[in-house]
Design brief:
By secondary structure, the chain is of the alpha+beta class. Helix content is 55%, strand content 9%. The chain is built from 13 helices and six strands. The protein has helices at residues 2-6, 13-16, 20-33, 68-93, 124-128, 153-165, 167-187, 239-305, 311-345, 377-380, 382-403, 448-514, 520-554; strands at 135-138, 193-204, 220-232, 368-371, 408-417, 431-440. The strands form two sheets. Strands 2-3-5-6 form a four-stranded antiparallel sheet, covered by helices on one side. α3 (20-33) packs antiparallel against α4 (68-93) and α9 packs parallel to α13 (520-554). The longest helix is centred in the middle third of the chain and has 67 residues, at 239-305.
Length: 578
């Protein structure tokens, strides 16, 4: 065994079976401890000392013919070789404990819905009733600026303003920069830490039986000690690298949180614009109905004054008009609040209302809708990518917890000088240096580190479960949008047909009422049906627009094709070594 340790380069089955890192350590050890061929071995002097031995007073013992300074240089060279060997050995033998993160694989599904994807069914009759047909383009990529497909300059300008001024997006960008800076700060733990300190003091040594530390036994003296310190904690078991990996994963998660904030902001602006257009259509339809009911009330009132109808007919028409008028204020309030929402999304105060306004006529419904392949969805959704980054961070934290239970090594050194005045610091005899190594191993902590590792492992299980839930929700969002769009065409067609039929019914019953062929009750029923039909029509059209926008959002919003945001450049550090 002793031969093998002292001569690792000799043929040996045990040495050959060692890992390469261990063989490297042994070779370095031998290179340091083996005598040098050019330097003769030191022999004990007659008094039993060897060259370089020192006594309590710091003076040399025995044969010191090369001088104390030469001996110090030899010792310094040996110490530096030991430090270099220790650093190389730590790097050669370093490993990373804990699980290695593996990227997610797409779920084994080939479609979003139970049956194959079908285009929304809009028949010839539906198209005659004003319904617009939409088709799904399976496998086509989602554009980065998907809102431009609505072909509204007002919408495009409002989205651009929101992206430039919204404070939530700015906060998400700052969070990403902070996370990246924290990652770079964590990376510094992999390198040696170099520092400088200097101390100057004026001292009085105790007298009596104690001696002054100076050769002249002065009790009062000054002491100046500047020195450069170096410390290094080798990442033998990968705890520092796992912590860096976890922090980098968190920074990646912040990147996806930024993309999610971007997607949410653009989708909210589009949805708010569509809702404003819907409210304006409902208000316009309600005002039209109120005007028609007001004209009819005036006609009935004239007929009642002429004795052609009873007073009850006037009262009933007045009540119906009042009911229709009650519908208008809530719609107007909702429109005002929607304008406030659009203004806030654009980063403005309510008093600085945006100038863009929206109607259903100003928005054009995209006719061909891209639908990404199910296998690509997990790579396109920012929330799924953020959940994956959370799993990565939790996985690395398990490695950190395991490494904390293993020995921790530290190597430190210092070089400087110490003298009673500044001028004496230049004397080589005033120089000093030290090299030290330390190892710390927890022996008993009441199970604290084990429980922390157990908690880290459970946090990983939690992150994995949350990731699966996020993936399921992502596929559900796409399926919901597809189902909604498949029904929207028929809903718009039915609403248009209902408005057309109720309008014809109102015109016909009104003529018959003027001729005295029907009662006022029939007229009231047809007017109520028409009001409900026109409101439903506006809502159905808005739903089709909103569900189209929801599909783009559910598919990830095309952030990978976006060109409007340039990556932020890292600030230049004028002193990166500090």
């Amino acid at each position: 065994m002793s031969d093998m340790l002292s001569r690792p380069d000799a043929p040996s089955s045990a040495f050959a079976s060692m890992p390469p890192s261990m063989r490297a350590i042994l070779r370095l050890s031998t290179a340091i401890t083996a005598p040098r061929a050019a330097a003769p071995a030191a022999h004990p002097a007659a008094d039993g000392t060897v060259p370089g031995d020192t006594g309590p007073d710091g003076k040399g013992l025995g044969d010191t013919s090369p001088g104390d300074e030469a001996g110090s240089r030899r010792a310094a060279r040996t110490a530096s070789r030991i430090l270099a060997a220790a650093l190389a050995a730590a790097s050669a033998s370093a490993c990373m404990v804990g699980p290695d993160f593996q990227g997610a694989t797409p779920p084994p599904v080939s479609r979003y819905t139970k049956e194959g994807l079908r285009n929304p069914e809009v028949g010839a009759e539906d198209r005659r009733n004003g319904a617009l047909s939409q088709t799904f383009a399976t496998g086509r990529d989602v554009p980065g600026e998907w809102w431009t497909l609505f072909r509204s300059k007002a919408l495009n300008s409002l989205v651009a303003e929101a992206l430039a001024r919204n404070p939530n997006l700015e906060a998400a960008q700052a969070s990403l920069r902070a996370a990246r800076a924290t990652t770079e700060a964590q990376r510094g733990a992999l390198f040696p830490q170099v520092g400088f300190n200097s101390q100057a003091s004026y001292n009085k040594a105790p007298g009596g039986d104690l001696q002054s530390p100076l050769n002249d036994n002065s009790l009062l003296y000054s002491l100046v000690t500047p020195q450069v310190t170096v410390s290094f904690t080798p990442d033998v078991f990968g705890g520092t690298r796992r912590a860096l990996e976890s922090q980098a994963a968190q920074a990646e998660g912040q990147l996806w949180q930024l993309e999610a904030a971007y997607l949410t902001l653009t989708a909210n602006v589009v949805a708010a614009a569509i809702q404003e257009a819907s409210l304006r259509a409902q208000i316009a339809a309600t005002e039209k109905v109120i005007q028609a009911q007001t004209d009819l009330l005036n006609l009935i009132t004239k007929q009642q004054n002429a004795g052609q109808v009873a007073g009850a007919d006037v009262v009933q028409q007045t009540a119906l008009l009042a009911q229709s008028q009650q519908v208008l204020p809530p719609l107007q309030r909702a429109l005002a609040q929607q304008r406030n929402l659009l203004t806030a999304l654009a980063g403005r105060f309510p008093s600085e209302e945006v100038s863009q306004t929206f109607t259903l006529a100003s928005l054009h419904l995209p006719r061909s809708l891209p639908v990404s392949l199910p296998s690509r969805l997990i790579e396109q959704r920012p929330d799924v990518k953020a959940a994956e980054a959370a799993v990565h961070a939790a996985s690395a934290q398990v490695g950190v917890a395991v490494a904390n239970r293993l020995p921790q090594f530290t190597i430190s050194g210092a070089v400087g000088a110490s003298a009673t005045n500044f001028a004496a610091l230049l004397n080589p005899a005033a120089s000093l240096w030290t090299i030290a190594g330390a190892v710390a191993q927890p022996l008993f902590d009441g199970g604290t580190l084990f429980r922390r590792q157990q908690a880290a492992e459970e946090n990983l299980v939690q992150a994995q479960a949350q990731y699966r839930a996020t993936v399921i929700t992502a596929y559900q969002n796409v399926a919901d949008a597809l189902r909604a769009l498949q029904a929207d065409g028929r809903a718009v067609a039915a609403a248009n047909a209902a408005v057309k039929a109720s309008q014809q019914s109102v015109d016909l019953v009104r003529k018959q009422f003027g001729l005295g062929a029907v009662s006022s009750a029939s007229l009231l029923i047809t007017q109520s049906a028409y009001l409900q039909a026109v409101v439903t029509q506006a809502q159905a059209q808005a739903n089709q627009y909103a569900d189209t926008a929801a599909l783009f959002q559910a598919l990830g919003g095309g952030w990978w094709n976006r060109r409007d945001v340039k990556p932020a450049r890292d600030p230049k550090d004028p002193a990166p070594f500090l």
